[in-house]
Amino acid sequence: MELSEIRKKIDETDEKLLPLFLERMNLSAEAVKYKKEHSLPILNKTRENEILQRVMSESGDMEQYAHRLYMMIFELSRAYQATLFKNGSKVREEAERALCETVNEFPQRTSVACQGVRGAYSEEAASKMFPRGNLIFFNSFDAVFEAVASGFCRYGVVPVENSSNGSVKAVYDLLHTKNVKIVKSGRLCIRHELIGLPGTKPEDVKEIRSHEQALGQCSEYLKSLGTTVKIQPFPNTATAAKSVADGKDKSVAAIASHSVCELYGLECIAENIQNSDNNYTRFICISNKAEIFPGANRLSFAVECENKPGTLYSIIAKISALGTDILKLESCPITGRNFDFVFYFEIAASVKDPKIVSMLESLEYECKKLIFLGNYSED
Predict the structure, then answer these.
(1) pLDDT digits 0-9 by tens, 291-318
(2) CA 336: distance to chain centroid?
């Protein structure tokens, strides 16, 4: 056959396929009505497996393609059913409460928890979000989360990822285990300097202290120093700088921001030592309850699901079926469990969209656990 004739037959086939697909989706709507009336779940794996087995046995050499086609049909069907299956789930109730109770303007004069000491990048990020905020410093990320979860501080600001050195795993672990929500996020351009006591020369330095993220962001510079310089991780860049000032030892330096020089009486030994000039860190603002301010267009949630083929694909397919962009996907092992993971999603969406809430409801029911982490905007 000529190509034009082949295309004509494809068009004719598509004309038959579309009405059948629409009929199947309409039948899915009828099925969800019955499920709702009889308190049945949307997902019926036994039924889906029976269909897949039949389809694969009848598909010959096209078995794998037929399998993928029907998996997508199932996902589209469930996504459509979820928009009709409003069952008052926890995630819906949480989103609706947040929309009703949140004020129109982001607060400014309030208590804000930060990790580290004065001069830390977290202080700069928090001051940017809360120009008139009362900043309170804590020794660890865990202490920041605890201060927010307990209500001691209304908000907390912590780093979540860096453009050149990846995610801050400790923060993701705490998002999974602590009952907090994300209410805002922002980016901060990071410029690292090697700093030390006044008069310190590069050749004097035998030990460099800083946070692991900062050390990673300056790995090329550190590599250039050879193996004679000891690298010492510290809980925070500003804490490392303060220890240098307190120690009065010119052989010890720190990697931190320029702002700590004046703060702790130190001097810059080498500037702009980060691997990339395009070095940004994302910070999130956390609260002990969901708050959704005007302009919120990013939505974060975490899911625990079964460790078997196709599970993650199923979640991604639900999001894709709504035409929603996935901005970030992070997987982290669950401490104390054997190769079980929690997946963190950040998507371009709002809970004001009923289809998005229905999709979250569907995941809440089908997955072991769903944690709604917040709907917010990013500066």
Answers:
(1) 999 999 999 999 998 777 778 888 898 8
(2) 22
The per-residue DSSP string of 161-176 comes to EETTTEE-HHHHHHHH
C-beta separation of 63 from 69 below 8 A: no
Would you place residue 104 in the very low, low, confident or very high pLDDT band (cuts 50, 70, 90)? confident
By CB atoms closer than 10 A (0-12, 13-18, 19+), residue 246 is exposed
- Sign of the CA dihedral running 327, 355, 344, 93: positive
**Cα(270)–Cα(295) distance, rounded to whole angstroms?**
41
As beta bridge partners, residue 115 has 138
In a domain, 120, yes or no: no
User: For residues 255 and 215, is the Cβ–Cβ distance under 8 A?
Assistant: yes
| 348, part of any domain | yes
Q: What range does the domain containing 68 cover?
A: 3-84
Shared domain for 304 and 378, answered yes or no, is yes
Residue 336 banded pLDDT, cuts 50, 70, 90: low
Q: Is the pTM of this model over 0.85?
A: no
Q: Where are the beta strands (DSSP E) in the chain?
A: 111-115, 134-138, 155-162, 166-167, 181-189, 193-196, 207-210, 230-233, 252-256, 267-270, 280-287, 298-304, 326-333, 341-348, 369-376
In this prediction, residue 33 has a pLDDT band, given cuts at 50, 70 and 90, of: confident
65 with 96, same domain: the answer is no
Task: Report the length, in residues, of the chain.
Answer: 379
Residue 302 and residue 254 share a domain: no
Q: How far is CA 309 from CA 64, 74, 249, 301, in A?
A: 14, 16, 56, 21
Query: CA 4: distance to chain centroid?
Result: 48
Structural domains in the chain (count): 3
